[in-house]
Every structure is written in structure tokens, then in C-alpha cells.
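Standup notes
- DV: blocked on the single-chain target, sequence here:
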Amino acid sequence: MTEVVQRETGVRALDGRGFSRSLVEEISARKGEPTWMLERRLAAWEVFERTPWPTLKDEDWRRTDIRPLKFAEIIPYVPGPNGVRARETIPAEYLSELADAEQGGFLIQVNSDPGYRELKAELAQQGVIFMDMDTAVREYGDLVREYFMTRAVLPEQGKFAALHGAFWQGGTFIYVPAGVEVALPLHSLVWADQPWAGLFAHTLVILAERARLTLVHEVASPTLSGVQGLHVGATELFIGPAAQLKYVSLQSWGRHMFNFTHERARLERDATLDWIVGAMGSRLTKSYMDIELDGQGSTARMSGLFFTDDDQHLDHDTQQNHNAPHTTSDLLFKGALLDRSRSVWQGMIRVAPGAQRTDGYQANRNLVLSEGARADSIPGLEIMADDVRCTHGSTVGQIDEEHVFYLMSRGLTRREAERLIVEGFFLEVLERIPFEGLRERLGRDIARKLGF
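- DV (later): unblocked, structure below
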């Protein structure tokens, strides 16, 4: 059986636009939060106030200009429907089952409000916790307090990390007890459909020793004309000793959305992470994605694909931090660009002193499909140990005309040949997504970008 939870959120619409300390206090009060969470929000707000806005003079921001964002026009809390009404708000393609048969649970957030939750009864009986963050703060306060923005994403990591710490609302909380294997995948979705909305979803996943989980987390919205939207998100993944997490993160924001995220995974001894990223949407994205290999024998693989067109700008900043010996990381990001769009990928493998026998690899491959498009690819290594194997590579190129000629000689039109080449370019990453329905949906997104 599946437990279906429908609840009314404790926060209703807030008046006005913009951000302030008093608004932080009002949000916390309306949610009925404990004192410790209000204190953390206010501490983050203080960090936000004293932290300057990033500019093109900052090294990791010098290729991404955020001045078009009309920050003062953003509404920091926008209510959304809940219960069945929340589910009815979502387009059908996001509601389909992830696996051939069923999924273990489904969590929906519409705008700023937690909306709908399903969880298989047998998973709840095993001690699996799967709920929105607002509820988790009230019902599992000690557990949330230990992990929430204390060891992974910190307010001090930047202007947007601090803003998130002050204004976070909703999101996903998961705890899997020691030795529990969640055989069916969990699925969470954040959906935004209102103009000038500010969203601050927080994802917190905790896997105890030898736990296993597959999670698909999506953020999406329609494109709204003549307005802007803002998402400032944070993701914290804690993977305990010998635990295994497969995490699929998909971003399909509309073209009016500015998207800023800080995401960090911490792996203990012999832990395994398989992180797959798909980015097709937003007007502008700046995402920090860090993997911290803290325990000996831990292993992480990160796979990413993105496709930009029109005037989209996607900036992904990845870190593979080897903090212990005998750790392994493998990163592959692939991107295609059309029209006047631009992508930035900045990657770093860092090996700490004493992290001997490290094996690290990173690669970024870019396919530029229009003269006006531009891809910046910046790999890096910072090695402070002497018994390691760390390599990196990046490419930026166009479609090989010989490949086009070969396919056209077999009866395809040029457009059909280019589509086949682009789809084949992405196939290596798409095949790492364990759900056929998601692969097919991303395939349709790629086809639409190409005009099919």
C-alpha cells in the first residue's frame, strides 16, 4: 500500500516584493519553526547582508553576468496548491512512473509550498523518512539540526548560499537507516508556475551505513513571457560508510528563470555515489556541484548533459575533492549549443596532502552547432600528493562534415543527419540514466531544440 499525505501548509501569501530581515522572521513564525531554525536563518541573513554581489571581476563569475536579474522585483514567497490539487497542477509527463512497474514514493512542491506526498507503506515500516523539509524540521528536528547547512552547503560559501540559508522554503528530506536498501526509486519534483516567483527548495539526503537509494529530483516550470523568476536552491547529500546513492538531477526551468544552486555530496569510507545531471532549461544558471571524498575507498561518478539554444547561459562549476587515500572520481560533462547561447564549465580535481593512491578523471566535451554560440571549458588539477593518477581533458568542436556526408549518402537529409549525430553525442550520458521514461523525455527535449 501507498501512504498518501495531504496537508495544508502553515504559511500563506506574503505581501510585497524584495527581501528583508523582518520577512525572514515572518516566514519562520508562520511555519511555526523552532528557535534554532530561526537563529540559523537570521545568521544566514547577516552573512547575506555583508557579502558583496558577485561580479565579472570574481574569477568564478567572470563569464557569467547576473546584472539582468531584477532582484528587487522577486516575490520571495508564492503560495501553491496542496494535496490532490497540487498533483493536478503538474503536466502529465512529470507524473509518469520512473520504473517499468512502480516507484517507492513521490513528493511534489508547487511554488513555495509543500504539496503532495506518497510513500510505500513497506518503506515507512523499514524506517525510511521521505517528506518535505518543512515537516521534517518539526517532526525530526534533531536529525535536521545536525545536518542542515552545517557540513555540506554553508551560508559562507557565497551570496546565493547565504540567501538560501535565510529564505529556504520546502524541498525534500530523506533518511535511510543503516542496512536498508530502498529497492524502488524515490521521486521529487519542484514546479513553479507564477510570475516573479522566488523559490528556495532545499534537498537533504542522509544515508546511514550500508544503506542504498535511487533518487530522481526534478525542478521545472513553463516559460512565462515578460517576467522573471528566481530559484536559489541547495542540495546536501550525506553518504555513510559503504552506502550507495544513485542521484538523478534534472533541470527544466522555463526561459524566464534565473537559477542558482549549491550542491555538495560527502562520502564516508567505501561509499559510492553515481550522480547524473541533465540541464535543458532556465535563462541563466550558475551551479556549484562539489563531491567530497572524505572516506578511504569512496568512489564517485558524475555525468552531465546540457543543451542550450537562443540566448541561454548555463555555467556549471564542479569540484572533485579527494580528502582521503584510495579514492576514485570520474566526471564526464557533455554539452551542445545553438544560436547565441553560451555554456561555461569549470572543473577542478583537488587531491589533499596524504590522499595517496587517488584516481581522478574529468572530461568536458562540447558540440557547437551555430556560429554565434560559445562554449568555455576550463578543467583544472590541484595535486598535493605524490602517488596519484589524475587526468583531465576538454574539447570544443563542430559536427564533422564527413559524418554528415556519410549519413546523407545513406538517404538522410542534412537535418536528419545532424539530429542523429547530436543524439549519438549525448548517448553515453543518457545511457547512465536508469529509467527509460526519463531517457525518452530528454531525447524529446533534444529533438525540440533541433527543431523536430
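- Follow-up: The CA atoms of residues 343 and 375 lie 5 Å apart.
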